[in-house]
Structures are given as structure tokens and as C-alpha cells.
Amino acid sequence: MAANKAANEKGKRDKVVLAYSGGLDTSVDIHWLQENYDVDVVAISVDVGQPETDGEEIVARAYRNGAIRADFFDVRKEFVEEYVWPLVKANGMYQDVYPLSTAIARPLMAKTLVKIAHEEGAKYIAHGCTGKGNDQVRFDAGIKAQDPNLEIIAPQREWIASRDDEIDYAAEHGIEIKAKKNSPYSRDENLWGASCECGALENAWDEPPEGVWIHTVAPEKAPNTPTYVEIGFEKGIPVSLDGKEMDGVELIDRLNKIAGENGVGRIDHVEDRLVGIKSRETYECPAAVVIIAAHKAIESMTLQREVLDFKKTLEQKFTRMVYDGQWFGGLREPINAFIDKTQEFVTGTVRVKLFKGSVTIVGRKSPVSLYDTGLATYSKDTVDTFDHKAAMGFIYVWGLPDQTAARAHTPEKKQ
Questions:
Q1: Is 186 tagged catalytic?
Q2: Is residue 319 part of a domain?
Q3: Which residue of the set 61, 106, 266, 364 is catalytic?
Q4: What are φ and ψ of residue 282, in 5° steps?
Q5: What is the pLDDT of residue 11?
Q6: Is the domain of 77 the same as that of 101?
Q7: Can you give the CATH number for the domain in which 360 is found?
Q8: CB within 10 Å: which end of the chain, N or C, has fewer?
Q9: Which residue intervals define the domain Arginosuccinate synthase-like N-terminal in the entry (predicted)?
Q10: Would you tell me how many other CB atoms lie within 10 Å of the CB of residue 178?
């Protein structure tokens, strides 16, 4: 600390902006960066809805561990409105399973780090990602896409150390940490969901131990009666829960609790990482799973079939771009513009049944619904507005190419 202060007074050291979570990796990274790169560390924490986050304590710990500046930015509102809601509009599910809870937070974090680096005149940005993970790609690519002149340092790629090694390093250098040895899992959490890996999860045959799950009730222990929720949408964006309008942060937070109490949102997935590794991960995304299911339901009522079919192609591309760290590339905004246009009439309310881990759509309504009871009805009590006689002519024209081919290709015709 004394040597660090003397160097600051001389003003000769370069600065590095560190993505600082306050956890083990980034806490030891402050000292490691000073020791190995002779830099002053600016520790930046970005709040995207991590549970039980004490910003003041995180900042204070960063200062105590040697940072020359430490800041905590609450960006939850921006996270939901500018990142999560576009993901919902695109029904973002990587490999049709994972709601991209970790991936969608990274571009906002990268944006914040670059902003602070410019303010500080920093030469470097550092993060605590490992060489096996996807996040290193998301941070590196996202930072370089905004400013190619910034250099990136990833201590965990250079110093391949176990969790216990890092704890020993912290003890040796007087670094304040909360971590303890033999911690079984590696976690990442935000408002949109939580991920968990390592430890017992590395055996893909074994059922995840109950200790993996910390935000959801075991489905078999969930209430014996279902819970119903109603989600209101305006232009593809959730705006109300059970008839009460609320902002996105509050809506997601409340739905996380409601769905989690019903055992909803547990995901056990062997996914294909961008770096070429298949990794067994578990996720807890109660609100995400419910909202995306409800969004698909209101789209099915308000969008034409051709729009739905074509949109799925761009949904997959958008989802891959988020997962692969290409948020700041040239394709995302044009795709978002198309998707936004499709959402112009995606307005209405969806009723969802939550029961022992299941999510079932049980009702939907919209002021711009394409579902016409008069056209769809088979009931004698409802006026049938469908022209039944027109069906014969339609079928004739629709099937005519196949009829023509059948006649041309029959053996009798060839003889």
C-alpha cells in the first residue's frame, strides 16, 4: 500500500480499469495487477441485479485492497430496458434452453468499463475471466469493438491458479476476501438469472445436488395448489403483473420470487461454449422462463404466420450474437430494428399457471388479436363467419401443382 501511494504521487504508472465484483478472483487481481504490471488499479463494480449487493462495502473493500479509485454503478434500469427487453422481444434462448442471463449482462458491463477507461485515461482494462469460458470473448470483443486501442489484461488467463491457490495468495499478501477453501461451485448472478458450474456438476450423469439451487424451491416441495399470474405486454415489453403496472426491474424481481417459490426456472444443460468446449451448467431463471413463454404466447395471437416463421430465423441469429459477444458488431442493430417492427402490435395480457416447476399458458387476450372467434368457431352458439364453400376452391388451387406433377409422373403417363 505504501509503495502504491508513492508511485501514485510520482504519477508515472499506467492505469488499468478492473471489472471488480468484490469476489475472490477480482480481489486478488488488484494486487496481482500491481505486482505484475506495475499499474494503478481503478476498480469498477456494475450492479445488474446481483442479490444482496452492498455497493458501499464492495467499494470500501476495493480501496482496502489497494485500488486508487473504486466505484459502484447501479445500472439495473438500463440493463432491463436496453438489454433484457430486446432479448425478450427476440425470445432469446440459447440452444432453446438458456435465457442468456449471464451473456446479456456483459455488453453493458463492457460499455461501462470503456467509459471509465476514457474518463481515467487508462491504458488497460482487466477482467477476471478464465481461458475456458465464454465471458472472456464477450469482454474482449465488446471492449475492442468500442475502442481498439485499449489493451486487455486477464489475470486468470496468465496465472492458472486454483481457487485454493488464490486464497493462499490472498493470505500471503494481506488481501481481504470473503471466500473460503473447498467452496464447491462457481456462480454468476444478476436480475435475469443465476448460473452455476464446477464441483459435482462436472459429472454430467449425476443429478445436480440440491445445494446448487439457491433461488428456487424444489418442484416436489412447491405448493400443492397452482399459482396464476397475468403478465401485460405493450409492443412486446412486459409492463404489468396481475394488472398492476410497474417498471421492468420491479416486475422481474417480483416474478423471480413468485415463480421461484413454485419451483419454476431450474435448467440443467450441457451447452456448447464458443471456445469449443461442451460444459455442464445449471441455471436458475424463474422470471426469464415465464416471461419468454408468455411473450411467445402473445405473439402467437398477434402476429401472422409468415412473420412468426421468418422472425424465428433472426431470433436465432440474435441469440447467437448475444452468446458469442457480438453485441457491438454491425448486425445486431439492423436485426433489432426488424424485431422492433414486428412488436408493433404485440400487445395484450397472458395468464400463466405455475405449478411444481411447470409453466403453462392458460389464457391470452389482446385488443389487436388476430384470433377471430367467428372464423374459428365450431359452436352452434356462435355466429360462424367462415365461408365454407370457398374452401373447395382454395384447396383446388393450393393442391394444383402437386396434382399436375402426379399426373405427369405416373407410370401410365410415361407409357
A1: yes
A2: no
A3: 106
A4: -115, 145
A5: 55
A6: yes
A7: 3.90.1260.10
A8: C
A9: 15-176
A10: 10
* 203 annotated as belonging to a binding site for a ligand: no
Q: When comparing pLDDT for 61 and 185, which is higher?
A: 61
pLDDT score for 3: 37
- Residue 55: CATH number of its domain: 3.40.50.620
Residue 378 in marked binding region = no
**pLDDT at position 239:** 98
Residue 324 lies in a domain: no
Contact assessment for residue 71 and residue 116, using Cβ atoms and an 8 Å cutoff: yes
Do 400 and 278 sit in the same domain of this protein? no
- Cα–Cα distance measured from residue 165 to residue 383, given in angstroms and rounded to the nearest whole number: 75
pLDDT at 10: 47
Range of the domain at 81: 2-183
Q: Are 280 and 93 in contact (CB under 8 A)?
A: no
**Sheet hosting strand 124-126, strand order edge to edge:** 69-74, 39-47, 14-19, 124-126, 151-153
State the catalytic residue, choosing from 71, 135, 140, 188.
135
Residue 21 annotated as part of some ligand binding site: yes
Catalytic residue among 45, 61, 71, 186: 186
Same domain, 111 and 7: yes
- Among residues 157, 183, 209, which one ends one of the domains? 183
Same domain, 55 and 122: yes
Does residue 203 sit in the same domain as residue 155? no
What is the pLDDT at residue 4? Answer: 41
Residues 130 and 196 in one domain: no
138 is in an annotated binding site: yes
> Is residue 379 flagged as an active site residue?
no
**Alpha carbon distances (Å) from 125 to 112, 116, 252:** 11, 10, 31
Does residue 258 share a domain with residue 228? yes
Split into its structural domains, the chain has a count of 3
Q: Could you count the other beta carbons within 10 Å of the beta carbon of residue 414?
A: 7
The answer to whether position 146 is within a domain reads: yes
pLDDT digits over 55-96, tens only? Answer: 999 999 999 999 999 999 999 999 999 999 999 999 999 999
279 assigned ligand-binding residue: no
pLDDT tens for residues 128-146?
998 888 999 999 999 999 9
Q: What is the pLDDT of residue 381?
A: 84
Of 148-162, 281-295, 307-321, 370-384, minimum mean pLDDT range: 370-384
> Is 323 a member of any domain?
no
Residue 19 annotated as lining a ligand binding site: yes
Q: Are 155 and 195 within one domain?
A: no
Strand partners for 44: 19, 71
128 is in an annotated binding site: yes
Measured between alpha carbons, how far is 328 from 143 in angstroms, rounded to an integer? 9
